[in-house]
Amino acid sequence: MGSKSKDTGSGADRRRVGRRAVLIGGAAAAVGTVAVAGDELGRLWWRLPGMEKKRVEGELDHKPAEWTAASRANWRRADRPDDYTIDRVVIHVVQGSYASALKVFKDPAHGAAAHYVVRKDGHVAQMIRELDVAFHAGNRDMNERSVGIEHEGFVDRPQDFTAAMYAGSARLAADICARHGIPVDRRHIIGHVEVEGTDHTDPGPHWDWDRYLKLVREASKARA
Ligand SMILES: [Zn+2]
């Protein structure tokens, strides 16, 4: 399950201002050279102070997903991957139903939400854009660098992790990894339990990592 963000941890060196300053320096240097391709300028304009990428309400990062917005209180506006590099996918289990996850992520008092929720039939809801920082890992640095995927069910009920859910989640994870250049391995696709400082145990001992990684690799190949 997602957990509230703490301002502790090792996030200071990844802070937005430092990264942005580096990018602006790079942009200024590029503009100073004789030839700058048009598409390069197109990518650079919004890196200037006060600029943000245009966004459309309800736009999906994972095309097969259904958009249903999380409460604005449960995520932070960002411009990933240009202010923070995305290099992790964090796997969660809801400890409840798909409907209960959508309900609490829409509740501003909950203080946490993930980008995606996967149902037992493999259906995927996107609740937060990947360019934004979702409060799901309980660790600021990890929130800033990751995309969070929740799965319907309970950690002590292996029967909740259906073939359809593994398959739908694997297609989603393969899509995220391909779009952000994230390696498909256990260093980059991790459980909430593996996040530094967490007291959460999800996805728990019944989550079949070998099966899941195999499915993500197969889905990655199918995309290529
Ligand atoms: Zn979790």
UniProtKB/TrEMBL annotation:
Domain N-acetylmuramoyl-L-alanine amidase, first and last residues per copy: 75-204
EC number: 3.5.1.28
Organism phylogeny: Bacteria, Bacillati, Actinomycetota, Actinomycetes, Kitasatosporales
Catalysed reaction equations from the record: Hydrolyzes the link between N-acetylmuramoyl residues and L-amino acid residues in certain cell-wall glycopeptides
Database matches in Gene3D superfamilies: Peptidoglycan recognition protein-like
Superkingdom of origin: Bacteria
Keywords, sorted A to Z: Cell wall biogenesis/degradation, Hydrolase
ATP-binding is among the record's keywords: no
UniProt GO BP: cell wall organization; peptidoglycan catabolic process; peptidoglycan turnover
Enzyme category, top tier: hydrolase
Recorded GO MF terms: N-acetylmuramoyl-L-alanine amidase activity
Organism: Streptomyces venezuelae (strain ATCC 10712 / CBS 650.69 / DSM 40230 / JCM 4526 / NBRC 13096 / PD 04745)
Stated name of the protein: N-acetylmuramoyl-L-alanine amidase
